[in-house]
Amino acid sequence: MALFRVERTSALPVGECWRRVTRWRRHADTVPFTRIIVRTRPPDARGTVFVARTALGPFGFDDPMEVVDWRPPTEAGSAPEPDPGPAARARTGGAAEGWCRLVKRGRVVTGWAEITVRTRAGGSQVVWREDMRVRFLPRTCDPLLVVACRLVFGRALDSLLSTGTSAERER
């Protein structure tokens, strides 16, 4: 599998960064030839299912994903979520951090992705870790896949976290 990591910092608060990187449909605006269909009702949480369809003309594939863990950051004054247990607390590192894990369940692309958003001085840090396997692609191609994924996902995070108000970003 091709394991890669992309990190970005932002002046945005952790809650806004979380909102932007977990608006699954918005990812289609940043990944060429891709559209995203969320198959479950909002709000997003554990159990959310969505499909990224990447196609050029009649050639394409579906990348179905499921959110299997979901720990959004808590904001001051908001109701706390039920305690998920020590393992999840260890992963999130506290209330000012959000973490989710996606599992890719496709015929072509398999693996997992983890998104962490944490408070940093002057804003937030976003870390996207992913372990991806493309069926029918030999493992000798993994280093090239890692480079391509870092470019695509780095560009996606740059776009999702770019400045502008929430209302402007939703247009």
Features of the shown structure:
Alpha-D-Glucose-1,6-Bisphosphate, Chain A, domain 4; alpha+beta; 171 residues; 40% strand
Account of the 3D structure:
- The chain is of the alpha+beta class.
- The chain has one domain (2-73, 89-170): Alpha-D-Glucose-1,6-Bisphosphate, Chain A, domain 4, CATH 3.30.530.
- Helix content is 23%, strand content 40%.
- The chain contains four helices and seven strands.
- The protein has helices at residues 14-21, 86-92, 142-160, 166-170; strands at 2-10, 34-38, 49-56, 59-71, 97-105, 109-120, 123-134.
- Strands 1-7-6-5-4-3-2 form a seven-stranded antiparallel sheet, sandwiched between helices.
- The termini are far apart.
- 23% of the residues are buried.
- InterPro entries: START-like_dom_sf.
- Residues 70-93 are annotated as: Disordered.
- This is Immediate-early protein 2.
